[in-house]
Amino acid sequence: MPRAGSVTNRALLNKLTSMETSIDSMLDDMNQMMRYQEMRSVARTRNAVLYNSHQNIELLSTDNGGLPMNYPTRAIDIVNIPDVEVVGLLQSYDLNAGGDDYSQRKRLAEFLGVMLP
């Protein structure tokens, strides 16, 4: 018959092992998010030096590494896309989608690193 202390130690060891697995998983997720953030930083820097609103802008991935639907290819497209698409893009990046049309477009352009024409 097992001692009461050995059952408690085994349960504690199992719990610690489970916690370690959870922590490892969270660290992997955080590292992946940091990689996406770094890629977005590089893209924003490239977008910031565009001298013409008709030049192609760099794509910025979302926090999960995907690309939102209807991504504008040029800075001028941010001005021309329908309002509902601007809201969708803001929501894809977990940005505040409130405010008037101009403030939404400005917020999106700033996030992408481009100047509105």
Detail the topology: elements first, then pairings.
Layout: H1 4-48, H2 75-80, H3 83-92, H4 101-112
Helix pairs in contact: 3-4
List keywords for this structure.
117 residues; mainly alpha; 4 helices; 0% strand; elongated
Structure description:
It is elongated and about 75 Å long. It has one domain (4-112). Helix content is 62%, strand content 0%. It has four helices and no strands. The protein has helices at 4-48, 75-80, 83-92, 101-112. 15% of the residues are buried. With 117 residues, the protein is an all-alpha fold.
Average pLDDT level: 87
Whole-number tally of structural domains: 1
Order of helices and strands: HHHH
| Number of helical segments with 4 or more residues | 4
Q: What is the overall silhouette?
A: elongated
Q: State the end-to-end CA separation.
A: 79 Å
- Please give the number of β-strands: 0
The quaternary state of the protein chains shown equals single chain
The major pleated sheet works out as: none
Radius of gyration, taken over Cα atoms and rounded to an integer in Å: 23 Å
Percent helix among the residues? 55-70%
What percentage of the residues does DSSP assign to strands (E)?
Answer: under 5%
Poorly predicted spans: none
| Structural class label | mainly alpha
